[in-house]
Automatic annotation (TrEMBL):
Domain of life: Eukaryota
One GO cellular component term: chloroplast
Name listed for the protein in its UniProt record: NAD(P)-binding domain-containing protein
Molecular function per GO: oxidoreductase activity
Source organism: Zizania palustris (Northern wild rice)
Amino acid sequence: MAAARMVSVSTFAGTHVRPSCHVSAARRGPRRARLAVSSAAGGSPLTVLVTGAGGRTGQIVYKKLKESADQFVSRGLVRTEESKGKIGGADDVFVGDIRDPASIARAIEGIDALIILTSAVPKMKPGFDPTKGGRPEFYFEEGSYPEQVDWIGQKNQIDAAKSIGVKQVVLVGSMGGTDVNHPLNMLGNANILVWKRKAEQYLADSGLPYTIIRL
């Protein structure tokens, strides 16, 4: 059997994450976690799709995989043409809506591994003045609530991956998902961690080999 090689993608604080059925709670600090995706030495490069490739962490992972083109064929999935342009506009970057399974089918087709980095993003309501004290208020844009993005959108990705027999799924979530009273759930009254946790459990129950990273 060919020996496995690994490329590590340094992204955020925490510990080394191995591709397996594994859950890791990454700690914030000077150390950085490494997302590791293995490929068989001497074999064909693995095709890896990074969803949420337009985000800060997604861009790093997508570009790091491209730097190891002898081992990986890197693909990216972004939400808009504008985001595609910001990461170079290459033909291996697909534009799709994770809330619509048909929209992401072309990006998913033929991949070996999936790295899910999509997440709902809260926005601060205008008019907040930090000099007056108090706390800012946040909201989610219509159609981009955590239930739609962090639950339905991630479920769609997991279902698509399972339908083609993907060999590994890496899901980047958040710590605090088991605490319904966590302050992050109060952002926009949208229960973002509750929905993230539901997607994690769905992946764990899917039968797919997986790694969950909680930041």
